[in-house]
UniProtKB/TrEMBL annotation:
Keywords: Cytoplasm, Initiation factor, Protein biosynthesis. PROSITE patterns: MPN. This is Eukaryotic translation initiation factor 3 subunit H. Component of the eukaryotic translation initiation factor 3 (eIF-3) complex, which is involved in protein synthesis of a specialized repertoire of mRNAs and, together with other initiation factors, stimulates binding of mRNA and methionyl-tRNAi to the 40S ribosome. The eIF-3 complex specifically targets and initiates translation of a subset of mRNAs involved in cell proliferation. GO terms for cellular component: eukaryotic 43S preinitiation complex; eukaryotic 48S preinitiation complex; eukaryotic translation initiation factor 3 complex. CDD domains: MPN_eIF3h. Pfam families: eIF3h_C, JAB. It is found in: Cytoplasm. The keyword Protein biosynthesis applies. Component of the eukaryotic translation initiation factor 3 (eIF-3) complex.
């Protein structure tokens, strides 16, 4: 016969419920299978410069999100029938994967981008839609244009908890952002990616490796001209600067209207108080000092700061790209100079 729990202790079911209700550990790393990485790169490179997306499948294990497989979404036009076909395609693919005993748990999605231009309102809305059904999800972003420069431009992103809370409550106003101390760098959180392979795949790769290493000079790395890449980055950054300027004009217009409304309110209150003084002198009841039906007392809606924050994030990304490419170019120039002197 089982002994009852001691006084102040918990039963087994209570302990299980407590563990279940505990908050999950923070996400520390995204562990991707090499096959999944190759599938993402192949899909994005084949359709570049067109943008493509796909589904990520895997497991959520503690602080590690494992991505073991993926499949692409079909390219389609933006209409309701195409959206319904896309949803049916996803369900059918996951059913087929389940039948062949492949991980079919959705852990996020991947998408391609052009020169790092992925920070959009659509990305945030997609994150929020995924978060309704999945506790934790990530977006893997692959940039074929940057990868052509010799860097594997693959990153895992998620929204920060503080930003998601404000976004759900429509609190992206200046006052709320100052209260939460949320700046433009606190929208996205980049999670480190770790690429791993099974022991069988590693053994197979070892078999494919030649006995003697192949010595081959990669002269493409010594090209001194990266003008097209720098040019496009600068063009996109100038476009973002124009967008940021228009966002600032919106807020200047809002604050001008707010100042004008406050001046009208003060003038109206002063006039009402003088009128009430006259009514008191005549022995009449004073009128209320606030009139909700008056348009000047209607609060002006403050524009959302989301667009401005996203554009600022994008400008920072372009600056980092230009800085990285410029640093590599300087190294090549110094190397070429040293070779010529010798």
């Amino acid at each position: 016969m089982a002994n009852p729990p001691a006084a102040g202790g918990k039963s087994f079911l209570q302990a299980i419920a407590t563990v279940t209700e505990e908050a999950p550990p923070p996400l520390r790393v995204v562990q991707m299978e090499g096959l999944a990485v190759l599938k993402i790169i192949k899909h994005c490179e084949e359709f570049a410069p067109a943008l493509v997306t796909g589904q990520l499948l895997g497991l959520d294990v503690g602080s590690v999100l494992e991505v073991t497989n993926c499949f692409p979404f079909p390219t389609r036009e933006d209409d309701e029938e195409a959206d319904a076909d896309g949803a049916n395609y996803q369900l059918e693919m996951m059913r087929c994967l389940r039948e062949v005993n492949v991980d079919n748990n959705t852990v996020g999605w991947y998408q391609s981008c052009l020169l790092g231009s992925f920070q959009t309102v659509e990305l945030i809305e997609t994150f929020m839609n995924y978060q309704e059904n999945i506790r934790r999800c990530v977006c893997i972003v692959y940039d074929p244009s940057r990868s052509s420069q010799g860097v594997l431009a693959l990153k895992a992103l998620k929204l920060t908890d503080s930003f998601m809370e404000l976004y759900r409550n429509n609190g992206l106003t200046g006052e709320k952002l100052r209260e939460k101390k949320l700046s433009w760098v606190d929208i996205f959180e980049e999670i480190p990616i770790k690429v791993s392979n099974s022991a069988l795949v590693s053994a197979f790769m070892k078999e494919l490796e030649p006995e003697s290493p192949v010595s081959q000079c990669d002269f493409d790395r010594l090209k001194l001209s990266t003008a097209p890449f720098m040019e496009r980055n600068l063009e996109f950054m100038i476009g973002c600067m124009d967008a940021l300027s228009s966002e600032q004009n919106k807020f200047q217009y809002y604050y001008r209207n707010l100042g004008r409304q406050q001046s009208q309110q003060q003038a109206w209150l002063q006039k009402r108080r003088q009128e009430n003084m006259s009514r008191k002198a005549a022995g009449e009841e004073p009128l209320p000092e606030e009139d909700p039906s008056n348009p000047i007392f209607k609060p002006l809606p403050e524009p959302s700061r989301l667009e401005g924050y996203l554009v600022t994030n994008q400008i920072s990304s372009y600056c980092n790209h230009i800085n990285g490419v410029a640093g590599q170019n300087f190294n090549r120039l110094y190397l070429a100079k040293a070779l010529q002197e010798d």
